[in-house]
Every structure is written in structure tokens, then in C-alpha cells.
Specification:
Length: 355
């Protein structure tokens, strides 16, 4: 006599649908085992680099994960775990150099990073002596990047508006082509162009403004591309609704399209600023360097953080090396702040999720 089905029977999985699975702690145990074997192989082979030990352990972890999963859960699930393991391994390979770089910069740069280092220049300080500071380089970087942003941001924004809202025909294709070409232009080429045109042909002297023009050339394609993508994300329904009410197209762009995309546009501009803040090749060619504070970017040589790092490292002594690491730490902090500001603007201006 068959027993009638109950609610408990309905909640139970059908026979044959269960497959053996590795326990939850298996990945951690396999990682520990692979790490132990990798360290043992590294020690036995006399490898001095811990990075080699880690690479051996990573390869062993992938192999052990695939082998145990294939034996217990089957080949299909093993392939899935293999792909996941490879993704995590590639992520760690990408993160380890970054973490190592930041750790090394903080460890070495913190030796000299204090109030005096940030508020003094190198005026009257010999490179072989400790002391001095980075104040003149910070002033130069802020002024040069600020002027470059004032040049590149409006030009890039207007170019993107033209390409998205008005661009048709050969002119638009030509502008798009040259923007793509400028995206791949090396920074040294931009510096050489300004050097030949501004300093050699027009006979203007070395200055922070010359460096700003080279930085603006590097910023423009980034601003154009990021702004163009943000404008394309604005729904056409918003444009059509505004135009249907009789609003002119220029006013629709100004009052509807730009406010909708302003978060992404600001983020793109900030990322472009962060991209050029650490450029050294055009700055070395154009600002000429200075040991003293020069608050006027349009007259006379000026310094900047990338040039200061190059200058101190080229001096080749312990005191200058410490100053170079300190300036590198200041530059990393500056770029990190810009990225955080960009993320904050993007989060602030992002569309609010509603019901």
C-alpha cells in the first residue's frame, strides 16, 4: 500500500539529484596545503625570492583544486572551480605588485614626510645634505595641472557635445579619428611639440604654462571620450520630451542633457587630471626645473612633483633618495585624493534608486 505524499516529501530533493560536494573548508585547506608545498619546494630548490614561492603555490593550488573537485564533484564542476581559481590567481598577481609598490613608497617616503618637508623648498640646500622640502614642487604641480584642466576640460566638453549632438558627415569622422590618434600619442611627443612650437619657434621661455599646454594635449582625448560616452547614456526620451515642448536644442543640451550626465563628466575630468598629474617627460622638457618657489607659472622656470622626483633621484645620494621617495608619496596621495573625489562626485550625482 502506497503512503500518501506529505509536505515533508515535497521538500526533499528527488533521488539522483544529489552529487557529492567538497566541504566548505576545502578551498582554504587546499590553499594552505599548496602554500606549504610551495614553500617547501622553494626552500629545497634554494630560491631566495618569496615571489617564486608564491607562484609555485598558486600553480599547485589550481592543480589541487581541479584534481580534488574532478574526483569528488565531477569534471563539469571541476572546470567551473578551475575558472574561478584562475580568476582569483590573476587578481592576486595584479594586486601584489600594487600593494608592494604602495608599501615600499610609504615605508621609504614616511622617513622625511613631515610639516617641514611640505612647507619648505630646496633653496640653499645641497643635494647631499638632508633637509629641504617639496613645497615649490607642489605649487608647480597644482598650477600646471590646474591650467591644463582649464584648457582641456572646456575644449573636450564642447568637442564631445558636437560629436554626440551635432556631429554628422566628414568633419565629425575627422574629429573622431584625430581624437583616437591623440589618445595614443606618447607624452614625450606632446612635450616635443610644445617645445618646438612655443619655445623654439615663438621664442617663449621655459615656464609652467608650457608644461600645462603639453598636459592639456594629453588630457583632451580622455575628456572627450569619457564625456562622449556619458552623453550617449542620456536617454533620447529626455531630449525628445524637451524638444516636444518647444525648447531649443541648445537649451535642451544645457538644461537637460548636461545636468543628467554631469556626474560621469566630472568623473572623467578628474580621472584625466589624475592621469596627467604624474607625467614627467613633457615637464622635464618644458618647465626646466627650479630650486626656489615660483608662484608665477607664466614667467620663468618652475618645478613640479614628477620633475622633483627625477631631479632628486638623479642626484644619487641617500638624502636625495629619501626626498624622492617622500615626493613620490605626496604624488600618490594627490592622485588618490583626485580618484576619491571622482568617486564621490559619481556617487553624489548618480540617479537615486526608487521604487
Amino acid at each position: 500500500m502506497n503512503r500518501p505524499a506529505t509536505a515533508d516529501d515535497a521538500s526533499r530533493p528527488a533521488p539522483g539529484l544529489h552529487r557529492p560536494r567538497l566541504p566548505r573548508w576545502a578551498p582554504a585547506a587546499l590553499a594552505a596545503l599548496a602554500l606549504a608545498i610551495g614553500c617547501g619546494i622553494g626552500l629545497g630548490a634554494g630560491m631566495d625570492s618569496k615571489v617564486q614561492w608564491g607562484l609555485i603555490a598558486a600553480v599547485l593550488y589550481v592543480a589541487l583544486t581541479y584534481g580534488f573537485t574532478a574526483r569528488v564533484e565531477g569534471r563539469r564542476q571541476a572546470k567551473d572551480r578551475l575558472a574561478t581559481s584562475l580568476v582569483w590567481m590573476c587578481f592576486l598577481i595584479a594586486v601584489v605588485p600594487l600593494v608592494s609598490l604602495i608599501w615600499e613608497t610609504i615605508a621609504r617616503g614616511s622617513k622625511v614626510l613631515d610639516g617641514g618637508f611640505l612647507s619648505h623648498s630646496m633653496a640653499g640646500v645641497l643635494t647631499i645634505q638632508p633637509g629641504g622640502g617639496v613645497y615649490h614642487a607642489v605649487i608647480g604641480t597644482l598650477e600646471q595641472v590646474g591650467i591644463a584642466t582649464a584648457i582641456a576640460a572646456p575644449v573636450g566638453l564642447l568637442t564631445a557635445i558636437y560629436l554626440v549632438e551635432y556631429g554628422r558627415g566628414r568633419l565629425a569622422r575627422a574629429v573622431t579619428f584625430f581624437v583616437d590618434v591623440m589618445t595614443g600619442v606618447p607624452s614625450i611627443v606632446a612635450g616635443l611639440f610644445i617645445l618646438s612650437f612655443w619655445i623654439i619657434m615663438l621664442d617663449f621661455g621655459y615656464s609652467g604654462f608650457a608644461g600645462s599646454m603639453a598636459l592639456a594635449i594629453l588630457m583632451m582625448p580622455v575628456v572627450v571620450r569619457s564625456t562622449e560616452e556619458m552623453l550617449k547614456l542620456v536617454p533620447n526620451e529626455l531630449r525628445e520630451a524637451s524638444l516636444a515642448l518647444g525648447v531649443p536644442k541648445w537649451r535642451t543640451i544645457l538644461k537637460v542633457v548636461l545636468p543628467t550626465a554631469i556626474g560621469g563628466i566630472a568623473t572623467g575630468v578628474m580621472l584625466a587630471v589624475a592621469r596627467v598629474a604624474g607625467e614627467s617627460a613633457p615637464i622635464v622638457l618644458l618647465v626646466f626645473g627650479s630650486q626656489v618657489i615660483n608662484n608665477n607659472p607664466f614667467d620663468g622656470a618652475q618645478s613640479s612633483l614628477p620633475y622633483y622626483i627625477y631631479e632628486q633621484w638623479a642626484a644619487g645620494n641617500d638624502a636625495s633618495y629619501d626626498r624622492a621617495w617622500g615626493a613620490a608619496l605626496v604624488l600618490i596621495a594627490f592622485v588618490m585624493v583626485l580618484n576619491l573625489v571622482a568617486r564621490g562626485i559619481a556617487r553624489w550625482k548618480a540617479p537615486k534608486a526608487g521604487r
